[in-house]
């Protein structure tokens, strides 16, 4: 398949070269685009893929995580990156909807402390709540209908508070899989961790509310998703992004893997 204009190929052979260098993505794709590490990705992209900016906000980093589309309402829910508002560290959940040819963005007042990742769940959104110094995080469900009530689905692992739940996916069998790194403690808005950085599976359909650790040994488990057949779960470890004196720092000697 021919390589589309908005795409560049970076094969494993490039990675294994004796003198590897970082690819000059910005020079090759000045208007943005896609970097393919395997030819099979081209069949997903199609012949003419394109990126389009539909909304921007120069006031704060409003579009960071979640990105959950609700087909019934045609709306998308996003979470901001953390920022300071009136001296308080905060995360904003926003609701996007298309009106004519334009997109509108509405900030929401939702009880999800320091929201991060999210996923479609039941008819609404299951958010990851990282928590605050005094409020535990966990998994919180939000109805897609005004006034958007919420309910806590899970907040602890056998009596120990989660660190700062980061990302979540739902298997077709109803089980919920999620990651729990300690970024909240490093960034100063969660207490000392009570648990290692781990990946969990929660089965709300079991009747017993079974929750168990399915993977450990991570530096910072972060993004999570299933393969198309749901036989494999992929988890990114972003331990290379750490916090020093309140600032995000890249540490190439730490994990940066999937």
Compact summary:
By secondary structure, the chain is mainly β. The protein is built from four helices and 22 strands.
Descriptive keywords:
22 strands; mainly beta; 258 residues; 4-stranded antiparallel beta sheet; globular; single chain
Secondary structure blueprint with pairings:
Layout: E1 7-9, H1 12-15, H2 25-28, E2 34-36, H3 41-45, E3 65-70, E4 75-79, E5 83-85, E6 88-90, E7 93-99, E8 102-108, E9 115-121, E10 124-129, E11 138-142, E12 150-154, E13 156-157, E14 160-161, E15 168-170, E16 176-180, H4 183-186, E17 198-203, E18 210-215, E19 221-226, E20 233-237, E21 241-244, E22 247-250
Parallel strand pairs: 1-2
Antiparallel strand pairs: 3-4, 4-7, 5-6, 7-8, 9-10, 10-11, 11-12, 13-14, 15-16, 16-17, 17-18, 19-20, 21-22
Mean pLDDT: 90
Radius of gyration: 20 Å
The share of residues in helices is under 10%
Globally, the shape reads globular
Low-confidence stretches: none
Q: How are helices and strands ordered from N to C?
A: EHHEHEEEEEEEEEEEEEEHEEEEEE
Query: How many runs of DSSP E, i.e. beta strands?
Result: 22
Distance between the termini: 27 Å
**Percentage of β-strand residues:** 35-45%
Structural class: mainly beta
The largest pleated sheet is described as: 4 strands, antiparallel
Total number of helices? 4
Strand order of the largest sheet: 3-4-7-8
């Amino acid at each position: 398949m021919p390589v589309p204009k908005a795409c560049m190929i970076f094969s494993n052979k490039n990675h294994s070269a004796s003198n590897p260098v970082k690819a000059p993505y910005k020079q090759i794709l000045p208007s943005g685009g896609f970097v393919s590490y395997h030819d099979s990705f081209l069949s997903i992209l199609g012949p003419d893929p394109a990126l389009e900016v539909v909304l921007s906000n120069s006031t704060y980093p409003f579009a960071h995580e979640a990105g959950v589309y609700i087909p019934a309402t045609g709306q998308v829910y996003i979470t901001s990156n953390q920022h300071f508002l009136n001296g308080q560290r905060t995360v904003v959940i926003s609701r996007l909807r298309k009106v004519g040819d334009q997109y509108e963005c509405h900030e929401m007042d939702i009880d999800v402390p320091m929201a991060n990742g999210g996923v479609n769940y039941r008819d609404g959104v299951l958010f990851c709540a990282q928590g605050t110094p005094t409020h535990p995080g966990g998994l919180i469900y939000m109805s897609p209908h005004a006034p958007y009530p919420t309910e806590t689905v899970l907040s602890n692992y056998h009596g120990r508070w989660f660190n700062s739940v980061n990302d979540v996916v739902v298997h077709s069998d109803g089980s919920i899989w999620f990651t729990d790194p300690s970024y909240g403690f490093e960034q100063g808005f969660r207490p000392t961790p009570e648990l290692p950085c781990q990946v969990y599976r929660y089965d709300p359909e079991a009747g017993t509310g079974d929750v168990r650790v399915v993977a450990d040994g991570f530096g910072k488990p972060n993004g999570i998703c299933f393969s198309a057949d749901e036989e494999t779960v992929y988890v990114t470890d972003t331990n290379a992004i750490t916090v020093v004196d309140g600032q995000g720092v890249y540490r190439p000697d730490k994990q940066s893997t999937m």
